[in-house]
Amino acid sequence: MRVLAFLDGSLADSGAAHLRVDDLGLLRGDGVFETILVADKKPRELRPHLDRLARSAAMLDLPAPDLAGFERAARAVIDGWQGGREIALKLVYTRGVDGDPAGTPTAFALGVEVDAKVLRAREDGVSVVTLERGFGPDVAEHAPWLLLGSKSISYAVNMAALREAARRGAQDVIFTATDGSVLEGPTSTVILAKDRTLYTPPSTIGILPGTTQYALFRGAEKAGWNVKVEPLAATDLARGDGVFLASSVRLVTRVHTLDGVALPDSTAVHQELAAIYESEYSG
Amino acid sequence: MRVLAFLDGSLADSGAAHLRVDDLGLLRGDGVFETILVADKKPRELRPHLDRLARSAAMLDLPAPDLAGFERAARAVIDGWQGGREIALKLVYTRGVDGDPAGTPTAFALGVEVDAKVLRAREDGVSVVTLERGFGPDVAEHAPWLLLGSKSISYAVNMAALREAARRGAQDVIFTATDGSVLEGPTSTVILAKDRTLYTPPSTIGILPGTTQYALFRGAEKAGWNVKVEPLAATDLARGDGVFLASSVRLVTRVHTLDGVALPDSTAVHQELAAIYESEYSG
Q1: Looking at the keywords, is Lyase present (chains A, B) (predicted)?
Q2: Fold of B2-114
């Protein structure tokens, strides 16, 4: 099932047409989005997601989004949802219709079922390939027009990378910079566990700050882990106790195979981290 | 005015909603496009544009587009047009609705008026800044998932680069690779004229092969110019007889200022090249 809501809180038929063909979101991929997990009617990390939407919008010089309106739309989707206990809730915000003198953005919230592949990956883990992203780790800071670290809807490269992974018999991707450092997944944050420390690369190298990674690190610190945000080399990944891809809907997914080579079994670490993450939302 | 047509040749109200919010063209910038100039009811370089649409679609693993249908839609837009003598005719082709088991792409042709800024730029030329694209010139060939050289609708970076140019008081951009070589404009091909030779970089460095550049080179050869497709350094640009940005709707636009420095006057060369280009479509 799918539930669509606009920023005034009204629900609409998601199977009907609502967009003009000259929306710049479609013609130019000119917009930003967020995907939020809703479990048992409760959106997770709603405020960090809204803040990140506003940050992405600012990177694209879009008008500041009406966050109260997005919250209202999110609530309307949740209240109108008749499906399973989880919702993948998308917030979408585009520059609106090309040539509109008022410059009115297009904005909506859309709830969809969690994909069956994601549910399987949460249980079984994933096989991942590293793919070059083509950039150096220092380009983001001095070339903001590359929009690195924004969550724009111009996601064609991310989707192409996932198809390349499938061609290689894998389910997901870790992008690397030209110097071999770890960037991010096409739709996830990379986390390395080693000696009771969690590592993730800093967003300054041109990656999206991860809301799920942040929540996990917060919980892990409380549970006695060390957490470090620092550059990682791709060659480090095979030398730890576990590699994980974190994102709102996939949660903390275990990487069992990297570039065709099985990683050391991280099932126990995964169970511990998954429990830590869930404990952030219980009680 | 705007005229919208679908691939069966039917016209539709471009001001009405025709797309679902869960079109992957919007959610993921997952699609390809072309923009074609129509002058006096005649589309220019229609076949090369259709071929490039098919090539871009293949790079994104989209189903092969129905080119006869796109031609039919283009014809319907042209026949239905009541505006000025020129039309900017967009062909758009997306992966369609997320989760659609039939995988039916979204496809349409949309005719719009030529932008007033473009008309001015054709006459007055443009001030251009060079901006880093962040890639090396060799990455395209071994990392096809970066989709370099495809005309995908994931154009947010191209649009951000144009806004950066505006912030610097310029109207357009020439992207450079990490080694300082010339790539392309966000929506154009770069051409250098020097000693009766026209130069443009090869598409193998990760840029879109230009239909207008190709037509100009074809005409220029007939008119006695030499043409060369070879790598150019950004530092070469100031040392020739003229720098031009070519694209379907802007035609061959003169660059009068590069990174804030006036280039040698290329008005006469521009007049000659503009006439050569137009002669490809007269008679």
Answers
A1: yes
A2: D-amino Acid Aminotransferase; Chain A, domain 1 (3.30.470)
B207 vs B138: CA distance, rounded Å: 11
Q: Nearest CB to B156: which of A29, A112, A164?
A: A29
**Is B157:A154 a contact under the CB 8 Å cutoff?**
yes
> What number is the ipTM of this complex?
0.96
> Quick one: CA dihedral B132, B133, B135, B138, positive or negative?
negative
Q: Assign B283 a pLDDT band (cuts: 50, 70, 90).
A: low
HSE toward the beta carbon, residue A183, CA cutoff 13 A: 30
Specify whether the CB–CB gap between A108 and A92 falls below 8 A: yes
Whole-Å CA distances, B137 to A21, A163, B144, B180, B258: 34, 23, 13, 9, 21
SS (H, E, C) B230-279: CCCEHHHHHHCCEEEEEECCCEEEEEEEECCEECCCCHHHHHHHHHHHHH
Percent of chain B at pLDDT above 70? 100
For the domain made up of B119-279, the CATH class stated in words is alpha beta
The alpha carbon of residue A91 is apart from the nearest alpha carbon of chain B, in Å, by: 10
Please choose, from the candidates B276, B281, B252, the residue with its C-alpha nearest in 3D space to the C-alpha of residue B118: B252
Q: For B135-181, how does the pLDDT look when each residue is reduced to its tens digit (9 = 90+)?
A: 998 999 899 999 999 999 999 999 999 999 999 999 999 999 999 99
Give the whole-angstrom CA distance, residue B3 versus residue B12: 8
Percent of chain B with pLDDT over 90: 98
Q: Would you call A131 helix, strand, or coil by DSSP?
A: strand
A26/B25 CB distance under 8 A:
yes
Cα of A204 to nearest chain B Cα, Å: 15
CA distances from A235 to A179, A232, A240, B120, B149 (A): 11, 8, 10, 53, 30
pLDDT in tens, A242-276: 999 999 999 999 999 999 999 999 999 999 999 99
Domain ranges for chain B: 2-114, 119-279
Closest residue on chain B to A23 (Cα): B26
Chain B hits for A185, Cβ within 8 Å: none
Chain B residue with Cα closest to A26: B26
pLDDT tens digits for range B63-96: 999 999 999 999 999 999 999 999 999 999 999 9
Options 3.30.470.10, 3.40.50.1820, 3.40.190.10, 3.40.1350.10; CATH of A2-113: 3.30.470.10
Kindly provide the b/e burial profile for residues B246-264, where b requires at least 16 CB atoms within 10 angstroms of the residue's own CB: bbbbbbbbbbbbbeeeebe
Q: Per this entry, what is the length of chain A?
A: 283
